[in-house]
Model the fold of this input.
Amino acid sequence: MNDNSVRDWLVGFALAALMALTRSGHFSSAMGLPDASLAAFMLAGCCLPAWGFPLLLIEAAGIDLLATTVGGVSGWCITPAYPFLAAAYAVAWWAGRWYGRRHAPAWRGLLPFAAAAVGATLAAFAISNAGFYLFAGYFEAMSAAEYALRVANYLPGYLQGTLLWLGLAVALYVLLALTAARPARANG
Done:
């Protein structure tokens, strides 16, 4: 195994662990942590080879399955609309891919990262909620406008939680980069 594949597996494990600990409504509510799933998919798109997407997708579905079958979590969200989560996560993954190809290890790299993060989070929110409205089977008597008004209340928390995890990832990246650069300066 080369250094890059070891790094990839370590990053993949860390993202999978973060998602497992924070997946909304399952374990995170006991700890008060926001869901890191969307951030994990974006970071995986940025940092991991293609195998990261299906593995995280399988993990997300597995966590939800365990939570609803043996964990006592309501299965209210497990409906014919559930596959729209995969589409929402794909948006985050591709935003990470897009940014990963343009990554610049300098402060100027933060603006495209922030744009990708906000854009992907808004798109993922729209996809998952539109899919739920259209295919969950719960909202036949509710107009699309009324549904949108009700769901809009959740957007700030959705955006805030995702951006919090992405901000922490950026801070960790900077810290690791500075730590790696320190010995090089001391030897130079």
Remarks:
- DSSP finds eight helices and no strands in the chain.
- Residues 38 and 89 are 6 Å apart (CA to CA).
- The two ends are 29 Å apart (CA to CA).
- The first helix runs from residue 3 to 22.
